[in-house]
Amino acid sequence: MKNNKKFDMVTIGDCVVDHYIVPQEYKVISGQGSKTGWLGLKFKRKTPVTEFSMFPGGNALNTAVGFRRLGLKTSIITSLGLQKEADLIVDRVIGEKIDPSLIKRDKNDEVDKGIVFVTAGERTIVSYHCKKKYQFPGNFSTKWLYLTSLGAGFETVYKSVIAYKKKNNVKIVYNPGSRQLRDSIGQVRKMIGNVELVFVNLEEAQRIVGSNKKTLKFLLGKLHNLGALNAVITDGQKGAFASDGSNYYRLPIFPIKRVDATGAGDAFASGFTAAMSYGLPTEEALKWGSINAAREISLIGVQNGLLKKNQLVNILKRNKNYKARKF
């Protein structure tokens, strides 16, 4: 059956219900075979928490909310079960005025779940990914596709996305998920050859291009060599780096009190991509992404800090000296 709906942006990926916990007592153990250390709780003891809450999230939902608040007509392609957790996600979609018509609900599917420990402004996530039978509904029209984290069986979606792009001449934005980066780097590289824009962090960029070099211009160039027309690499507290193939830009993080880092990457990506969809240049898109991410990490939980377009524009007007620089 023909779906006559037309969108500015359609996100594709898994959704999750996250349970947020702020432990009162914990210890960060450095080293021990991990670049970032380990989070320690008292063994065989009860640990009191100062806050416990639950949020519907996942990269596809987080970015869909971000795009919709920034004024884009948005829908989401995701696979959900019939459980109450899935109802939470659908309720959030409808509540944010995101079109729900591309959501597949199947009794054999489940919703991914996560436990997020928020400590000193950072987050540690314990995740449970459920098996799903993915389907790509080709009966819709959109200007942009935002492809992000998927579970086992994602390959069929990738093939459908590439075929849809070739048939409809849409622009693909790509933020590969952890499973793809861990198990299917060849698939990631192939997809990058089809995208308008790719978002990765420094470590992900190194893995994709097969190099331990930390030189941002080198890594961005390698992403272009794989076929990406535009590339963005985020590097934590050092800010974000972007290239349109000719120019390279750097923007430091927007100053704000960091409360919870969960959802920062999705907030950045939705801000940056929305700016591009409005025809703004790379250096301006960096500011949209960074300010949106800063607002998101100032509050606990995902999506709570995502800005509306007028709010973001007003912050930009008040911070005219906040600018991206060429490097």
From TrEMBL:
Endpoints of the signal sequence: none
Organism superkingdom: Bacteria
Transferase is among the record's keywords: yes
Keyword Kinase attached: yes
Keyword set, alphabetical order: Kinase, Transferase
Any one GO MF annotation of this record: kinase activity
Protein name from the UniProt record: Carbohydrate kinase PfkB domain-containing protein
Organism: Candidatus Doudnabacteria bacterium CG10_big_fil_rev_8_21_14_0_10_41_10
